[in-house]
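Supplementary Note 3. Input sequence used for the single-chain structure prediction.
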Amino acid sequence: MRIEYHPDVADELIEIRDFYESRSVGLGFDFVAEFERMVLRIAAMPERWMVVRRDIRRSLMKRFPYVIFFRYVADDCIRVTVVKHEKRHPSYGMHRR
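The predicted structure, written as discrete structure tokens, is reproduced below.
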């Protein structure tokens, strides 16, 4: 399964990583490592995750209070569209394709 990322995801990851790194050295990189593991799990079994709106699915990260939203863009490709804090407004990023 191929994995694509919406262009805004890179900025979100940098912001989140920097926030955690400012709290504790190494924590930001732990966040990125967990994010990467979750994306690989998503790619391995994309149907496993809950549909939240039309073709958008979500996966909750285990250690950090963040949600990864993704969707199919082809039979063999998913696109990660949003990485957001669980307390962020529910419609944040839902317009992204």
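The longest strand covers residues 66-74. The CA atoms of residues 22 and 28 lie 8 Å apart.
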